[in-house]
């Protein structure tokens, strides 16, 4: 069992530290989302993720009906580096409340 | 030379004089806020009270009322002491 | 010229004071993109990085997502608000 010091969230980055080796959700700019296992991170929120699913959402306007067409594209990547400045939100896996 | 000019007011002093008064904040992009200035720091992050937020969207102007906020100074473009986009 | 700052200090609340006062409270965090996050503020740092609990994501006022815990990178933050909000659509 982790000691209280290790498990306490005293600053926001502690939330990321506690998610190491867990699958996390990352919301990025330009409508990109990632789900993968967090291997490493730094204070800029640069991150190394493994077994990553990337979801890209695009909205197109139909030329004739002017309807919005929302498309999501999924792809898998075994390993990647995320540059921190594109990160909007990081969410750890749901813990038991 | 400029330092000898008694009428010169540092920008931060001007903001300091607004504490306790209404201030109009125009952001980069299509957002404006009006509220009572409670305090600010060196980045001009500001604590505002009784805030009205104006967002210009495709559907028109959206107005949001907020009790108290900490506004990030990063995207502030213009500060207008006392001013407001609404006459009321 | 002297005294102006002191006179105001009774009601002055710096960003630091605000941050100390709002931990553990329900907040609304608005991003520059216009997206709102509502939840309980766990903690935050000088970059306005924020850790929230029971986070709900609102896009155009509509609930889009829920997160148990969420870390929000500070550079995206427009403001942190303490209170419930009322909405009205102006002309």
Folded structure, characterized:
The complex is a heterotrimer of chains A (97), B (88) and C (91). With 97 residues, chain A is mostly beta strands. Chain A has a single domain, classed as Roll (SH3 type barrels), CATH 2.30.30. Chain A has 2 helices and 5 strands, in the order ααβββββ. The longest helix of chain A has 6 residues. Chain A is elongated. Chain B has 88 residues and is mostly beta strands. Chain B has a single domain, classed as SH3 type barrels (Roll), CATH 2.30.30. Chain B contains 1 helix and 5 strands, in the order αβββββ. In chain B, 32% of the residues are buried. With 91 residues, chain C is mainly beta. In chain C, a hairpin with a 2-residue loop joins β3 and β4. β4 of chain B pairs antiparallel with β6 of chain C.
Write a concise synopsis of the structure shown:
The complex is a heterotrimer of chains A (97), B (88) and C (91). Chain B is mainly beta. Chain B has one helix and five strands, in the order αβββββ.
Number of E-type strands of chain C: 6
CATH architecture heading of chain C: Roll
Largest interface comes to: B-C, 33 and 34 residues
The CATH architecture of chain B is: Roll
- Termini separation of chain C: 43 Å
Under CATH at level 1, the class of chain B stands as Mainly Beta
What are the segments of chain B in which pLDDT stays under 50 over at least 5 consecutive residues?
none
- Overall mean confidence score, pLDDT of chain C: 81
Q: Which bin fits the share of residues in helices of chain C?
A: 10-25%
Q: How much of the polypeptide of chain B forms β-strand, as a percent range?
A: over 45%
User: What's the SSE pattern of chain B?
Assistant: HEEEEE
Helical stretch tally of chain C: 2
Label the structural class of chain B: mainly beta
Oligomer: heterotrimer
Largest pleated sheet of chain C: 5 strands, antiparallel
> Strand order across the biggest sheet of chain B?
4-3-2-1-5
Q: Characterize the largest beta sheet of chain B: strand count, sense, and whether it forms a barrel.
A: 5 strands, antiparallel
How many helices of chain B? The count is 1
- What's the β-strand tally of chain B? 5
First-to-last CA distance of chain B: 42 Å
CATH fold-level name of chain B: SH3 type barrels
GO molecular function, one term (chain C): RNA binding
Protein name (chain C): Sm domain-containing protein
InterPro entries (chain C): Lsm6/sSmF, LSM_dom_sf, Sm, Sm_dom_euk/arc
Organism (chain C): Fagus sylvatica
